[in-house]
Amino acid sequence: MVSSTEYGSHAWELLLTVDHQHEGVEKEFLLHVTGDLHVGGLMLKLVEQIKVAQDWSDYAFWWEQKKCWLLKTHWTLDKCGVQADAKLIFTTQHKMLRLRLPNMKTVRLKVSFSSMVFRAVSDICKMLNIRRSEELSLLKQSEGTLKKKKKKDKNSKEPATEDILNLCNSPVSSGLPANPGLYSKTMTPIYDPVSGSPASSTITWFSDNSLTEQNCSILALSHPTCSPETLAEMYQPRTLADKAKLNAGWLDSSRSLMEQGVLEEDQLLLRFKYYTFFDLNPKYDAVRINQIYEQARWAILLEEIDCTEEEMLIFAALQAYHVSKLSLSSETQDSICESEVDEVEAALSNLEVTLEGGNKSNILEDITDIPKLADNLKLVRPKKLALKAIKTYWFVFRDTSISYFKNKEFAQGEPIEKLNLKGCEVVPDVNVAAKKFGIKLLIPVADGMNEVYLRCDNEDQYARWMAACVLASKGRTMADSSYQPEVQKILSFLQMKNRTMCSQAASEPENVDMKPECFVSPRYTKKFKSKQLTARILEAHQNVSQMSLVEAKLRFIQAWQSLPEFGLSYYIVRFKGSKKDDVLGVSYNRLIRIDMATGDPITTWRFSNMKQWNVNWEIRQVAIEFDQNVSIAFTCLSADCKIIHEYIGGYIFLSTRSKDHNETLDEELFHKLTGGQE
Questions:
Q1: 404: which of 51, 269, 393, 411 fits an S-S bond (Cβ 3.0–4.6 Å)?
Q2: What is the pLDDT of residues 472-483, one digit of tens each?
Q3: CATH number, domain at 634?
Q4: What is the mean pLDDT of the chain?
C-alpha cells in the first residue's frame, strides 16, 4: 500500500492505455495522479512506467469519451477536465491513411491525425507537389454514392497492391515537418540536364526514391481511362438529389481526422473543393494541373456535370488526344519546354477565377468613354403552348445594363426595356454545327427569375456579347481588363466546337486503337454505335491535334469552366417559411436556389452583396443578410450545415489571395471565416 501522505489527500488513480507494438509489454498502466499535474508531466510519468527505449515524441493523449486530443501539455488535468473515469489512450499522432486522388489512383501515406484537417491537407499537398492546398480538402465517401453490388463492396478497400502508391517513407509520413523544398522561395525552376526543360518538382522531390519515375507518372501524367464496364459500375448521379450526395461528406477543416471518426488505414478522397484555381503555372504545377484535369474528366464521364453532345465530343477528343500522345510519344515525362510555356500563357490567365472585390488589378476606367456594344440581335420571348416569339431589335450594352429599341433610329429615345444584368445568371445556348448562338439570361426580380433569350448571328458577335454579359453579372463593365481575355476564351472554345474541317486530316489519330466508349459518358455510349462515336471524336480531334500535352489539359479545364454548371456544389435545404425542399447551389461567387423538381433556378444571391452570415448551432440554421434588406435562412437536410458555412467562408477567404503574398497563407483568417462557434 502507498500512504496517502506520499501522494497527497487529493491523489486519485487514472488508467492509461498505451498504443504500441512491443510484444510482451503491458498496454495498460494505473498511475496515481493529482488534478494539478500537467499533461506533459503525465506523459513523463507514463513513459517512465513503460520502460521501453524508443522515440515517444510523436505520441499524445487521445481522450476516447470526449473524442479530443490533449495537445496542450502545459495544461493541468483539472483544467482539461480529466477525472478518474477518463479513458486516455497514449497513441501516435501520425498514422497511415489511404487517399484516393482525383485521377482515381490511391496513395498510402502517414498523416497527422491530431492536426486540423486544413493543416493536414497542406502537409499532404506538399508531399504530392500540389501548390495552393487551400483549394483542396478531404471527402468521406457517403454510403449512398457506393454501388450496392456485393463484388464491388468486397473490393472497396483497393486490395490490389499495384494500384496503391506507398509514400510512407517521405518526410511528412515520418512525422517530421513538411519539407518546404517543393516551394522554391525564388520560384526558380530546376532544369532537366538531359532535355534542358524544367524538371517537374515531383521528380525533384522523389529523386531519392527508387520509384521516382513511377511516382511522377502516377501523379503528373494522364493514363488511359478505365473500361466501359468499370465506368458503368461507378456511381452516376441522375438527379439533383443524387448530386447533393456527392458533397455531403466533406470533413470539417477546423477539426482533426481523429475527432471526425477517421481511423488508421481508412480511405478518404482528396479533391479540389473550391473551384478557384489560382496562379496555375506549368513550370511548377505539373501534378496540380493533371489532377484538376482528372477531376474534371471524371466529373464529365460520370455525368456529375451536364454538357451538350457537341461539348462531350470536344472533351472526348481532348482525352483521346492525351491517350494517343502518351502511347505514340517516346517521352515519358510531363515536362514542358519554354516554347510550350509561352503557348499556354494566354490560357493561364483565363483559368484564374476570383470573387468580385478580390485583389485583382483593374485598368482605370475612363469615365468619359465607357465602352459599349450596339448591334441587331434577336429577342426570344417564351410563349404559352411551347411557342416562341422571335423578333429583331437594336440592342445597346452599356455599363452593366442592356437596353433594346425598335431599331437603330429609335436608339436616342426611351428604350422598350432596360435590363440590369448585375447578379443575373448567364447560360450559353450554343450549337455551332447548327449555327445557333444563344445567350440565356436569368435576371433576378422580386418574385424569382426573369428569363430573357438573346440570339446572335455569328461567333464573333456572340463572343463579344457573351463576354459582356458574364462580366456584367459580376458587376464589371467592358472597361475591365478581363473583357478581352474573356472574348478570346469564348472564341477559342467555339473554334474547338467548330466541325467544319480541313480536307487534309491528320493521320496520327487514325493510327490509334481507340475505344470511344472510354471517352464519353454512358448516356452517349447508348445513343451512338462505336464506329459512329469514333468517327465523330476523330472529326472533333482535328481542332485540337496541334496542341501540346499541357495545353490540351489546360484547354480541357477551360472548356470545363465554360459549362453552365461548373463550380456548383449542391445541397438539399429547407428555406425558412417554405413547405417544400429546395436545392441550394453553392458557387465561388453566389448562392442559387433551385427547384428540385424542374432543376430551374429560382433566385440568385451574390456574395458581393452579402453583409453577414451566421449559424444558429442549436437548430442548425444558416442565416444570411444581403444588401437592400434581403435576408434568407435555411436548414440543410443532405449534410451538416457546417459544410455550407465553411463553403461560404472558404470562398470569401480565397478571394483575398494575391500573388504578392506568394506562398504565405493566413490560416488564422481561414478558421475565423469558416470555423464557426458551436
A1: 393
A2: 988 889 998 889
A3: 2.30.29.30
A4: 80
